[in-house]
Amino acid sequence: MHDGGPGQAAPSGFVGWYTRIMMSIGASAMAAILIIMMVQVVARYVFNASLIWAEEICRYILVWITFLFIGLAFQRGELVTVDILTIKLSAKAQFILKSIVSIPVLAFLVLMVINSYDFFGRFHMQTIPAVDFIWESITGHAAGVSILWVYHSVTIGCTLLVVHILVSLVAEARALVRMRDEPPSTQITG
Length: 190
Known about the structure:
This protein is mainly alpha-helical. 70% of the residues lie in helices and 0% in strands.
């Protein structure tokens, strides 16, 4: 799942569709944070009345953004890596090293997903205070929206990252096979 960096063609097919959907979600979420915080600043400094729920809602949106987009950041090569030595290796050696390093990362992510279900069982009764406050001020009773809606972001984000890593490894393996199968260039340069 490589989306093509600057100067490269935009992805097409499923990858392009997925990337566009994710970018739209990200833009909408960031716009929501911006609007909520602008309303909070105006309410606090112009009307001397604070929206006590604004920061909590923005924090939950930011948690979702973080976990939803870690896979996309991986896909685009935007995660921090220390590759000062690996960039000097051959493509095959880089792939082997990446595959070896991916094993504990994938194991950790799978454990996070598996253990999240135990976590869900423990905290399913906890509600989101900000949503309860907003709903109660409108209707007179609490909404009772579970905090699991926030915690699910970890499970979904880890699952997406597993998919991104596996797709990346498969794509790199296929590229290596194609490179091996291509005849050497007979073009003379100089």
